[in-house]
Structures
1.
Amino acid sequence: MLQLPKLLIIWTFLLSCFTVPVIGQIQIEGTINDNFGNPVSYATITISGNNKGTVSDINGRFKISLSKPDTLHVFYLGLKPRSFFADTSGIYTIQLAEKSFKLDEVVVFPGINPADTIMQKVIARRSEHDPMNLPSFKYTAYNKFYIALNRDTLEYFSSRGKLGGSAGNLVKMAKKSNLFVSEAISEKYYKAPGKMRENVLTTNISGFRNPAFAVLGSQLHSLSCYDDFFNIGNIKYVNPVSPNAEKKYFFLIKDTLTAARGHNIYLITFRPKAGTSFSAMYGMIYVDGYDYAVRKLVAQPTTQSSQIGITVRQEYDKLEGKYWFPTRLQSRINFTDKVIDSLPPFPIMIGYASTSIMNPRVGVKIPKSILRRQFEFSYAPDVTITNDSLLQQYRSDSLTPQDLYTFKLMDTLQREIPFFRWMNDLPLLLATGELPLGYFTLNLKESIGFNLQERWRYGLSLMTSYKVLNWIRIGGKFIRSHEEADWRYAARAHLNPLRNGVLRLKYQYQDETSEKGAYAFYNPYRLGMYNLRSFVLPALNYVQGHEAALELEYPRYVNLRAKGYMEQYSLSHTAIDTLFGNFNRTAVRFDLRYAPGEKLGNLGKYRIREGAGGPVFNLSYERGLAVKNDDVKYERFLGRFSYNLPTRFAGTFRIMGNAGMVTENIPLELAFNGRGSGKLHFYEPGVFQSMPVYSYFHTRFVNGFMQHYLPIHSHQKNIMFSLTTQLGVLYGDSRDSRISKISSQAKRGYYEAGLMGGLMNPEWGQIILGAFYNFGEYAQNDELKNIYLVIGLTTALDW
């Protein structure tokens, strides 16, 4: 039997083993906020005197344990660091004040910058950690997006007496309701190389039933942080995790934490180096010191509007002990305005978009039926019917009282106020250029226009919407010509027999005018309100007759069209070719368009095109049939190649080439005009700015355009300049001697060079000014007449 002292010693030892940690550990938790009360994601909290610490989560929350009372240091880029002493367990709210962030701040190292060494290791292993290099993966995502009055900011100024009496009402509204809330559950599939598909299963959208609103937040930035470019708001920025980034970005180690496995986590800030002028971001990267992989990323553009600013955040976890994979994506949009004259502008509204990635699985087999789909993202047939059980299953955070009230309020407004019902169809306007008007859509481009022959044209061009019938649209137009006092009209029917809209049948009967010698390439996704050249066309055809087309979007990246014409062409009073006279055109045409890598979104019956992603090829063959005595018999071949090549530091290079040939003797109306823009002083891509309209017609031609677009950013002044150089070349002739007599031929080459400069201030947009110069065999003797001045809004357009 043990003696009593020994029992006391053993009991005291055992008691100390279990009680010392409980008594000695100080449990600290809390939230990091900015001076407006908004949560600060990915702030570092470190213990004084060592590398132990933690990082706040995406909602600004943190937890840390102390063995004894100690000082904690809090850091976040762009906010003033703060230290506080923690001696008791509890919940802390830490507020970080804003500071001026100077992009031209210089830090000098006596030798090699250690942050460069770390980032070079990250870049060296980026192919290993890039999720797009995995053989395949799939996951389910919960997407939430909301816009709200910035309650914390309003309360901050209101409590200090800085706002007027109306502030109280705004604060009450902000506490009660958001302005907009949407939820969506989607499944994403990927198979290397580059085959990505996302299918939205269900949505819950305040006030709207159009599923396009549900993906607003999830499309704001890139999924992977390892590409050469990082997309924010569909604009490409040079990724700091890309080859040789240390030559353009300045990296700085701001903190070092010790992870649970004992290795380091490096907090590295980045910003463009002084004197650089590329499309840059600034922010923070948390680097895992064992794998040299990105754990967290915070970034925002260096050049953006002070009224609308966006910050993106990404969080990565290690799957199965070997794959680094994104698990949380977030974007914050600040809508800043100067509400009170005595106060600086502050964020009056905020938008939050978050994507929680759940159940990611790597190396899974992706069904071929999914990979064969044409579209980058699509929707389930019943996507607008909210599946509450599915949302509840994947919802990462419960809906707040403000969210619930927003759904109730906005649904009521949508039922009772016509404006909100019209807003539900806004994606149709963005995707097609058609203005939704209840059960009809208005084609703005056709309803009003101008050319030098008819002068102003005005009227109505309407089609029924899919609210009437989901498989067919019917309509037409009545347009009055001001100069000729005549009516132009058309009757149309568009049939969509398949739910996803990949097969379309179109019919039209028209009595209209058209450009002489025009040629066009099939592109069902081309947007744009107007063809600017139509404003300066001095002579047009009168065309009356039937058109029918069968369009198919299949297989992947391919568009096919078969089209038939039975039309009568009549001479106008401004006719150029009077020898051939009136004629009939009975013809069939076949079009092929191939755009590998093109990203498309399927919004039911209409599409959203996100970008080419690679070269685009067009081929066309048209044959005139001698059905009637006065039909023109011919064969017409057309081809086009275009490619946009963005580079990280040298801007974007664009090339486009067109070629065509027509056999037999044909009227001038069916030849190829030179695509001169004549008196048009507005820049338009793919035309010869210095060439007079209708000055060149050919039966065989080849032309090419080469352009270099170079953005030049002034990071300190928040201004972007651009420099665009362009070269256009045209060769052509005519085997029809009659056309050669009434029109010029570019047998020896028509050459045109252009130089354009642009200025873009995020507060008011961009404007470009430039000059084009015609040189070579067909230049005029008076040099001043070879120079043509243009103005425009942008040259940063996909060809």
2.
Amino acid sequence: MTVSKLEKNLKNLFEQYRIVFWYDGEQEFSDEFKALNLDSIEKVTCNGNPFYVKHLVSNEQSEQKFLLYFPHEQPKDQDNWLLDLQLAHKVYHSDPAGLVLQELGLPFELKPLVDNHKKFFDSKARNEKFLELYNPKDSYDQCLNKMLSVTFNTIEVDLQGQLLQFITQKANGKEDQIENELERFELRQFFWDKVAERYDYAVSEPSLYDFLLTIFKEHFPITRTGTNHHEAKILLSRWKQTKGIDESFKHLSKQVQEDLDIDQLVSGKPIDELVSDDLFERTDREILSSIVSLLLDEDISDERVQNICRIRSNKFWYSTFKPFYEAVEYASLLIHSIRDFDTNEIFFNSLEDGAKRYSESLYQVDFYYRKFVFNYRLSKQSSILKALADKIERMYSNDWLLNINQKWQHQVDTLETWPSTGRTAQADFYNQYVKPFVDKQQRVIVVISDALRYEAGRELFQKMISDHRFVEDDFSYMISSLPSYTQLGMASLLPYSKLEIKEGGDTVESDGNSTVGQQAREKILKQIPDIESAAISAEAYMEMHSKKEGRDFTKAHDLIYIYHNIIDKTGDDRDSEQRVFEAVEEELEYLINLLVRINTIMAHTNVLVTSDHGFLYQNEELHESDFAVSEVDGKVWKSNRRFVLGKGLKGNDSFTHFKGGQLGLQEDLDVLIPKSINRLRVRGAGSRFVHGGASIQEVLIPVMKVGYKAGRQAQLVEIDIIKKSDRISSNLLPVSFIQTEPVSDKVLPRTLKAAIYTEEGTKLSDEFKFTFDFESGSQRNREEKYTFHLSSAASEHYGEWIVLRLEEEIKGSSQWKKYKEFRYQLVASQPNDFDL
């Protein structure tokens, strides 16, 4: 070190101290001492004359600053006659370690630490980070722990956090950098000793990947030897559940999966041996394949399928396989529903009886089919599900769709007139649903979603209850006008005295006025006396630039018809018809947002939601037998996949023939409807998505009233625990979570995560996450058990009160808030009860 550097260091010390002691056991700096030029500071060489020195600096020159140079090692305290002065002032260390200690303001007792880890302390940045963590009360090992945290670049001084950072760096290809730094800073042995102590991982040549292989094997059901170390379980739990590092788990889990040959280990294993695994994505593939095989043979109950899927829904890889699991859930529901309903035993006493029974329960099969196909497509039509998809198509088309509509067709064939009056007739919609509000001078908005069939409307109703909790319990069905196509359905929802189909085509006139398009319909609405009416597209309503603009528009009108078209637009295009179920999902979300927007703009407005018609959809290519032989005589105005319009029409036995007067249209009109679900061949048109016919899926449509009443809110289900004691005396805490009542339309599922914490908020256990959505009436069947594993850190809180904290997600965010807490006291009958 240069003299100038020494002078600078010493002058800095003399700004705080009057006397500075300098021990130079090797006399390396004797020449530098002599060469020092320190203004106003007296240099004294002290060699065997402690009493003189003490008298000099304390009595003779008590105000003078002194640099006391000792050409020997610092004596032990009991032999140091100047110890009182030394403790009151400052010792200067000129060796490298001493200089570091002085620069950082650390005590001399840490000199061995600096000597043993010189390369760690040769960086200003590392030194600054170390000082941020350092506490004067830290032991040698605690300092080493903090040096590890600096090396791993973690804020917390915690081995678990250090390991997770190490793991993340490995996933990012930076493992060697960390390994090199541990070696260079001489921290490697200390680190792996700590890992061995905490995780019982003691090998001669430790490495991060070998450690990961070990803990994965210990926690995989097939390779588990019984060790299943608590700390490792908590490490894995935190790794999977911490945003930002969970991607590294995906990456490394797949690598471990390959190296441990998990494919071979899980192949053919029973579901019960695999269902608890939360490590490998290959496990989910095997479970799904097993469920599919069992469903193909119809050798598994729906209750078991739903239970397996519920268990898997709380596992790490569920998000990757969610559409797969939802597909098998809905496939199971569909298969068992079709078998339970047994269409051979279903008989309708009348059209109204059929509509009522379909609206109460039978609609579920079409709902399950839509959800299966939607999720199957989300899975990219995975080969895992292909055989199941083929079975579902056969069952849905042959055992359900064809059979149920043949039973429905029997009632259609007996009709003298198609329903045109009453609350279940679309043709009477305005009189039954809209006019009562108009007569009372109450504002009403009618939302019309093109091709929103009954089962989709039912889901919309459930979504409104679940997601926004302001829907009034007023949901029903209507039977659409026939033929069930857009022009007639839209006209039927307007006020009118007489509807006619214009000769030569399929356009509809209302009392001589065109009903084609939004402007024509608005013109008809504006003919209603004493009120202001408007028709507008949903897009235009949603795009009003401000709440004031929307309020001004709404306030200016007593009656507003809002139109939206996603489902029909998608299904009617041959190139996009396969995406119609995706369009239904999109439409449901759009309608929810629209209804929320309406309430935001003008609260407490009466809102009705309905549709012009439903639809038939089969995901597979249709067979020749699905097409009717088109033998039609007469003057054809319009021929569609599902109906023929004209005059003097005659068809063969594959058609049902109606005169216009039977359908509430002009008497001289003839309408031919292919029976059941048969299609007509039309060049260039799609055949999977159709409407216009008389099938129950085409003609049954939803109608609901959205009331936004204050205080009408669905509640999330309450969760409690069975607490047998408030004392914890081991590293395991079994907990029984109880869902207090079944979920329903008005009692909604609740998703919680739970873990054990100190009262200050330090986590002491692994984490449990679960969605409580049990529908069973029996409390025993609404119980979910979980055993929490306490970490070794719990031993530091012996005798303290800790909490089991239940948290729920804050809607619209990734944050969680406290739901409930249960207090326990940590007690230990033996000193090592928590030494894991």
3.
Amino acid sequence: MKRTPFYSILKKPLVAGFITFALLLFLTQYITFQKYYINENNQKREVTNQVNLIKEKLQSLIMFSYSATKSLAYIVEKNGIPEDFDDIAVELLNRSKYFDVVELVDRQGFITHVYPLKNNDVIGFNIIDSKEASSGALATIKRNDFFIAGPVNLKQGGVGMVSRQPIIIDSEFAGFSAVVTKLSTFFKDLNIDTSNNNKQYIYQLSRVNQKTGEEDYFLDNDVSGYKAYAVPIEMTFGEWKLYVIPTKHDFNTAIIFAIVGFLLTLLSSFGVWYFAGRSERIHKLINIELKKQKSQLIKVHETSRKQIKLSESNLNKAQRIAKVGSWELCLETNKLTWSKQMFRIFKKNPKHFRVSHQAMLDVIHPEDRDFVSKTYSDSIINKVPYRITYRLKLENNQIKYIDEQCETIFDENQLPKISFGIIQDITARIKSEEGLKKSELLYRSLTSNAPVAIFNVNHKGECTYVNEHWIKLSGLSYADAMGQGWLEAFHPEDKKRIIDEWEEAMSSNLKFKTDLRFKDNTGKITFLTVKATKILDEENNIFGYIGIASDITERINNEKELLKYKNNLEELVNVRTVELNDSKNALLNLLEDLNFQSLELEKEKAKAQSADLMKSAFLATMSHELRTPMNSIIGFTGILLKELAGPLNEEQKKQIKMVKNSGEHLLGLINDILDISKIEAGKLKVSYNNFDYLASLENTINFLQPQASAKGITILPQISTLDIVLNSDEVRVEQILLNLMSNAIKFSKKGTITVKVDINDNKVVTQVIDQGIGIHKDDINKLFVPFTQLEGGLDRHHEGTGLGLSISKNLIKKLGGTISVESTLGEGSNFTFSLPLMPSGSK
């Protein structure tokens, strides 16, 4: 290919060098200009980055301060000053590194709660009366909204910013929730040196006087010479400005670059003769510098993003602890957003549930849905926030109670822009209140039917409740007794004394006890004995007092009568004393006669005992002689009834059964007579052997069951121990059981006979309890007398000889046991006997 003349000219070193010089000179000077422009922009960007960084930190501080004070104010508005204030304050301080102190201020401006207390001795300090702090406090009250005041000289030392949120209870101002951020803490986080040692920037903080517009500076730095370079950051939620002032403009390296570029141009144009294509190095250097700056910007952005994400995490944690969720509705786009706690409260899965205004309404209980919608609409129309309680109807028909607060923000044209809402799950509180109401109703029901007067008084001495019996005794109505009205029930002569005793008992923390009188409007006087004791709440603080008053009028009247009788008795004693003195000699003569008669009685007693022994011996002999023919009669009638000697008609069977029954009855009578005779003669023998006591009891019950069933009576054994081995006379023990249970059946018309068996102190204790006719208390001493029946005469309804209980008592005594009886006439009797498991002296 043929080369052109132009190419040949370019090939000349001088031309190439000149062209290279021209091109490089233009290029280097152009780059110098760009470098100059980049350096200027970099310096401005550094200042802008510093300002933006401080703005982000300030916005984070505002957000954290608003969240912390709003949460604390909500807790106080909802539940009052929390008992765990310190725990909540620790949570708030841990949530943000900017906070140094958490405070609560009452409606008068006094600081009532502070955490931490160390180095913060400000409790009792009145911020409204303070010239330094009143400006921000009054501004907060005037705004009736969140406000950051400062910088102020803190009472505990140093300069700081105070974020306050007004506490509104029942639509009235009740104080502030506040957090304090010391400037040293804030500047430390920004790595800002507020002294003059920082050569790159000067910082200054000022507070704007709202009346004069003048600024009061709080840092020692003098910025008067840098006003032209100041970049102020003004706060919308506060009253202060922060200045970031570059102290000097660095020498623009582009000038050096221009000189170097010129020299480089010379060298490059010279080097063109030797080298080619070396100019790319300059472009590479530029690209490296640009990449470095880009990397720095990305790092700053990532750090800010992490800080915002951490702030959101802390906010979600605080909402989870307080069971509070938040929502935000953009009215321009109709987009609704929920916090994480909202999904927990509504029990929705964030991955599957699509949040929308209609979806939120669908979860609300159908009966409350229109009410919630109307309340929200009225809030927007009237431009006022609202607070309501309603129900959610969740899956499986679970009901939750919700407390919601909502406020809508309007733009400059007074059009609704954004609605913010806070929701708290109050189901546990509602259920607790319902339980408390039920307990109160139960208390009122019990006290209303109590046979004594009951009253409640609060810690101020005002009556809050009286029951119906109190109203009946006092003659006052329920309404009249409330407050101080209950004192009108007291007798006028007793009132001052009672009030003094009450105040003394309450002040000395003692129980109140006294006797007093009620005087009603009819003049009726009732004597009462009154007791009252304090009622404590969960913190052992006195909540009030509860008292009872018992009517003792009858006792007082009886005491008066006794006193009257006592006085009469003393007079009577004096008269009788005189008469007794006159009769002294007559009594002495009477004693002599009694001594003589006593000797005669002793002689008669000896004769009676001898006759009694002869009677017992006779009865024993005759009973033995009678048993032999009676056994024959019973045996032969039994053979006849079995028809071994031939068939019998019905009338013959009936007559023979009557003979057999009469014989058996007579034999039982003979046996009883024989036993009582042996007992009285001291000849009764017992033999001790181990046997199963419960088996003997079962045999006795089975033997008597037909008699009991015939009368519609149930025998119910109650055994506490299933294995009882008794060392005693088995035959005599069964005889005792048979006598006691036969009597229970005989003297009962219906009901249940209960046989209880227990082991107590190595003794078998047996109770035979019936629901029969019972025994009069005057007749109990006659029960164990031989041949004695409580129902005497020819018209008695129950047969028997009156020997069964006497024999049983003597047998029990012979076996080392005891027997007792308890009875109520018309209700039944309880015969209780005990026998030792092992006789005395046995191993």
